[in-house]
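Changelog excerpt

This revision adds worked examples to the README so contributors can see how folded entries look when concatenated. The first example is reproduced verbatim below.
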Amino acid sequence: MNVQEKYWKLMVQMKAWIFYLDIYSEESYKWDRRINVFTALVSSASIASWAIWTKYSFLWGLAIAISQVINAIKPILPFSRRIDVIGKMYPRIVDLYNEIDRKWFNVSDGSLTAVEINDLIYNYKVIYTNIENECIKNPILVKNKKIHAKADKQVEEYFTNY
């Protein structure tokens, strides 16, 4: 594989990572919304039911307590932490990809030497590693095959169209 192919592969991988993070964040937001709706409904319905059917006040009180516990632990649930990590990482990865894409013309038209292209690849990998090390303190982004497959499909469509 020549350095131009290595550069292209890096560019494709970076775009795949962007799509992956985008899909992953959307999935995490879905869980966040579901829990918010659930706790809101349980709290509201329990308060209304408690007022109407005082005979079951213990059950309604328990339902309210459970919804409050869920709200209290929500920030430490994995999907909530993923939203934070992706929120910090995503714009920086997009900026890196845009820089890689900007240099693609110089790589593809042969105006850069193999050494210069190799240096670019190395520098981009260092930048990526720094972003990852700064944003991901704990292994919170568990590999998800379903999301990976969706991201791969989007990458294929993206590079086919552009």
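The second example, added in the same revision:
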Amino acid sequence: MNDRDGQARQRRANAADRDERVYARKRAVQARKRASIERQEFDPAPPTDDDWTVDDDVSDGVQRVTAPVPLTEALETLVRRKGWSKALRSARLWAQWEDVVGEGLVGRCEPSSLERGVLTVRTSSQVWATQLKYMTRHIAGRANEAIGQEVVTKVVIVVGTVGERPERGDA
């Protein structure tokens, strides 16, 4: 039994050493990539009037920076890079739900999910589910208008508990 414990301990130690070497190699690769990017971006020429510069904290000189971009463009780039487009489309639909279904239905149904073009709408009773099933094309069209893109391809109606929605302006 002791021999087995010793072998197990040795295997764990070898695995830990191997993991350490793997991560050390990964860190070295990342450091080389960063250095390569810095070398590519380095420009020894003095800045021109077209360059954007800021004071360099390390030296007495200046450092080039990228030109500023409009805030909307920067936010769109961030949203696209992070993959938040789908979540923002869904949030826009939830925020404009009253415009999609109208004042009379907003308290009786709510969007439940928007996945792969399928908008699931939860309603409070089977009677309203039947009524909403006749309106699925209308709801899909209005939802796409609210989102600003042709995202909703199908509307599915389910019966469940409809939560309390805050009044507009209260949220």
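Reviewer comment on example two: The chain has a mean pLDDT of 80. The helical segments are 2-41, 71-82, 85-95, 97-101, 126-133, 136-147.
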